[in-house]
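RETRY 2/3 - previous attempt timed out on the joint model. Re-submitting the same 816-residue input unchanged.
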Amino acid sequence: MESRKVTKTLEDQWVVERRVREIYDYFYSISPNSPSDLIEIERDKHFGYLSQGLRKLGPSFSVLDASRPWLCYWTLHSIALLGESIGGKLENDAIDFLTRCQDKDGGYGGGPGQMPHLATTYAAVNSLITLGKPEALSSINREKLYTFLLRMKDASGGFRMHDGGEVDVRACYTAISVANILNIVDDELIHGVGNYILSCQTYEGGIAGEPGSEAHGGYTFCGLAAMILINEVNRLDLPGLIDWVVFRQGVEGGFQGRTNKLVDGCYSFWQGAVVFLIQRLNLIVHEQLGLSNDLSTESADDSSESELSDEEEHLEGISSHVQDTFPLGQAGACQENASHSPKIADTGYEFINRPIAMRPLFDSMYLQQYVLLCSQIEVGGFRDKPGKGRDYYHTCYCLSGLSIAQYSWTDEADSPPLPRDVFGPYSKCLLEQVHPLFNVVLDRYYEAREYSQACETVSPLSLAPTFSET
Amino acid sequence: MDSCEVTKTRIPFKERPDWADVKPVPQDDGPCPVVPIAYTEDFSETMDYFRAIYVADERSTRALQLTGEAIQLNPGNYTVWQFRRVVLEALGVDLREELKFVDRIAGENTKNYQIWHHRRWLAEKLGADAVTNELEFTKKIFSQDAKNYHAWSHRQWVLQALGGWEDELAYCQQLLEDDIYNNSAWNQRYFVVTRSPLLGGLVAMRELEVNYTVQAIRASPENESPWRYLRGLYKNDTQSLVQDSQVASVLWDVLTSQNSHVHALRFLLDLLCHDLEPSQELKSAVDVLTPQSCSPDLALTKKICSILEHADPMRVKYWNWRKSMVRVQLLQSQNAERLANLSVQE
Ligand SMILES: [Zn+2]
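RETRY 2/3 succeeded.
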């Protein structure tokens, strides 16, 4: 046997594993039976850290001076996930500020007077949806935004981040996401996007930022979500994608972004949401596995027969949920055909209202444990991993991922999770639910959709929707 | 280091005679902005002057110099970068000088989208002349951070747009010798093997690559990267994969060793789902690993899932799901058979 050479990847990995193990050992030593009882979300501390950021940031934040709508989104969305509110004054200030970031020709820049950029447009629109007031939604110039999005379209089928900017899967997602949520999608906008994203799925199964690059959690979320929104998700190799993403959850409980990279709390959302999205794609997954969905009733009948009944014995003791893992033929699962195509403009709504016919394929409790014990910082905020400092980005995506994990066992949108599926004391830890395609709190999504539906679709766009007058 | 002149003794713009004609434009943050940043004096002033020339669309030498100062203060400001490109083009500046500027900024900002995008723009303008420099530059980045995502994207773009493929496979080889777990290097290897115009493509390279990968797997069977790479070598051609004796032999070697079996089992399961007819040796290797609680008559695929449920508890739900999928696949083929028999009888 050749002895294994210790490389940088292994060394770095061992350091992180040791740190995480120390943390888990400590918690299990002080409360061996129910360590999770000791854990809670430091709501007040997080709220303090977040609202402080909204009010004042130090000079070191100058490097984020072109990402201020992101700072808005990270803080506002985190606060919404905690179920907290910042009050009317600060809300109005936020609307006013974001309006100053809106370009006269549509889209939002990184700050007042900066060029419009797709990522900051996404952040601004999601911030305004999270604020949720009619004034917030009506401050978005949908007509101009549509022309901005169209201007960013590239010959490759993808989108450009800004005039003269880079083309990648992030740009596709952010463009499609805002177009969908604001009901300004049309065929011209989505033309070629599917081809571009498809060309970014790698031999590993995940999705890369550009064709040829390495499969990566952030881009995999963006690519998958965009494909669902344009109703072309059946073109991706989903079994391959599933096999890649489930292997990204590491011994620490959290997710890594790429194969053989280190765990990082922000992938709790990027990778966790990928698994969560897949739970609603079971019909397409079955189709791709060569399983015909209309066979479901037969298999349900047959499953009581001899050859299959040895199944249960090794399921016992593994998980109380596993019997539910394969509810082919359960009510609702086959009500619609996988190839059935909803109106493109409403794919986000149709998707969230599908019954979840597939149980989560990752360890949601262990993920929650990582976020709460390793990423959470006592004085407020979340971090990548032990040894790192907190920041608003990781706070937003650790909380978003935590929410995804908490709701991953629910059967349908709007139903609360069972206490056994939430790590830590239920009432203290339970977060608000997000719409997994847009990463905004679900209730705010519904409000925004109601508003956008009230506005006319693309041509001609109405600038004065009725909803804003109520 | 002459590049420090700006930061060392910065003279405010308002005291610079050549800027006397410019009226700075303050940021329109409104009366009560959210996420307000407590800018330093230098930062605010520089940006106020930048806004002035940006709004006036002044494509001048002093504008170019100003964008340089603004970028040093915040390399993430894409508006400044974009305007700098406009000015560079208008002035017809020697772009090799510009490359030096980017090199200076790049030092501490290897994960900044804007710098890499600017480099790509520059390299595109410089054409074939830029190849050596860009390949060397990314090499330098990888010596510090061998998995830098932006640097890999840049390198791939250079190869595809401008060439320079000659030594790329050897370079991947070297990086993998340094760190066989470097998945970015495996990904680059796949990129070269599938896209290099010099190598003849995936099918032509397959045998050599399988040899190499199988060796890497034998050396560290718990390393996920070569397993995924091996699968990738047979993308869209599972028929050949199923027939490759090297693959069957490495599977047997790993399954009968003391190493982690997870990836070997996962791979075997994949093959079986693609109609591999398993050898007796492979079957017995799986039997040895099968938990005693399993019925010996269980289908091989289901045995593998059961082993994995124990050996890989993190993914117990995944393996359980895979098992349930196998169950249905089995049922469907039984049904198909039954139907076929029926129609024969009729
Ligand atoms: Zn992170």
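Chain B touches chain A through 88 residues (CB under 8 Å). Closing ticket.
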